[in-house]
Amino acid sequence: MYSWIPRDYSIADIERFTALSIRRGSPLASLAQRDPADLRVVAGAAALGLPRGEGLAQERVTAHLERFLAGPGDWLAASAQELLTAVRDAGFLEAAGDCWTAAIEPLPGVSEKRLEDDLEAAREILALRRARMKASLQTRNRTVNAPKGVAADPEVDRRCMTAALEEARAAAARGEVPVGAVVAAEGRIIARAGNETLALGDPTAHAEVLALRRAAAVRENHRLAGTTLYVTLEPCPMCAGAISEARCARIVYGAGDARRGALEGALRLFDLPGVNHRPVIEGGLMAAEGEALVRAFFAERRPRSEEVNASDAREKEN
Question: What is the chain's alpha carbon radius of gyration, rounded to the nearest angstrom?
Fold first, then answer.
């Protein structure tokens, strides 16, 4: 008794193969278990490039199937031998003595090139969708992690920045770079600090970092949500990173720093894709006072440096 084996391969089969290709790492057995028709679709796609009407040596067929598995069928978890069995069982290959003959009958418009083109187009669309989904998730994460907002009060801002300037002047008196910082919550100062890198022998002891540490101790929480950080000079990259980890809702700085500022000067740390925290940033508050302190500090030390250099030069001349 004879049974008819369909050997035609259609555009619909190509479309189904393209849809299946999203399932990376699919074994042939799982395809057959879900739907035997899908295994036939894969077998036909593998047979499309085989020349018809001639005897094909085993090595030639195996090499073709290996190329298929490295190309259009790279999403399959199968060996060339497993695929050969599937192609034979689907009726797309027939044994002819020591050789094989391709028995697939592609319908008009169906070819290996059409399969590759459709697959490439589908993968481009999938990549675009994934990129859009990733961008959407990043936007959502930024929205979720964005500060809830802190009401700005000009009077409170000036009072807090004045306190930060006091810390900067105290730092200058100690021989430290004159930068001061204050952390405030609901208009009340909860921590303040000036630079102490020399006093503590600690390169991380910038005013902002010390103020954040003290505020965290007051709150008994490393997250400082809802707070405003006031600082007399635009924070450097290290301090901006610490602010991001602390989750301060707002940053108010005085003088900008075009060379090392990490908010709006040399770089914009909070605009980087990997930084989810997006605080409100406001610069320029009492900037002249903060800038004057820094200028005076370095101007006072410059003549000493020049004097030492001149002295060294005279000694070399003698």
Answer: 35
Which entry of 112, 208, 234, 264 is annotated as an active-site residue?
Answer: 208
Token match 């301090």: residue? Answer: 239
Residue given tokens 């036939």 in the structure block: 40
Range list of β-strands (E), 234-299 = 250-255, 280-283
What is the rounded CA–CA span in Å between residue 155 and residue 179? 21
Beta strands in the chain (DSSP E): 8-9, 56-57, 93-96, 99-102, 105-106, 180-185, 188-194, 227-233, 250-255, 280-283
What is the predicted pLDDT for the residue at 307?
45
Q: Is residue 317 annotated as a catalytic residue, yes or no?
A: no
* pLDDT the model gives residue 1: 38
Spatial contact of 179 and 139, defined as CB atoms under 8 Å apart:
no
Are residues 46 and 90 in contact, defined by beta-carbon separation less than 8 angstroms?
A: no
Mean pLDDT by 10 residues, the chain (318 residues): 68 94 89 92 93 88 94 93 94 89 92 92 87 80 59 90 98 96 96 97 97 97 96 97 95 95 94 88 95 93 53 40
Distances (CA, A) of 69 to 30, 60, 77: 17, 14, 9
Sign of dihedral through CA atoms 155, 159, 164, 168? positive
Handedness of CA 204, 206, 211, 214 (dihedral sign): positive
**Residue 14 token pair:** 């190509």
Q: What's residue 317's pLDDT?
A: 39
d(CA 272, CA 141): 13
Using a cut of 0.90, tell me whether the model's pTM lies above it. Answer: no
Residue listed under structure tokens 């590759």: 116
How far is it, in rounded angstroms, from Cα 89 to Cα 99?
A: 16
Query: Measuring CA to CA, which residue among 193, 227, 187 is closest to residue 209?
Result: 193
DSSP state of 146: S
Name the burial class of residue 139, with classes exposed (0-12), middle (13-18) and buried (19+) by CB atoms within 10 angstroms of its CB.
Answer: exposed
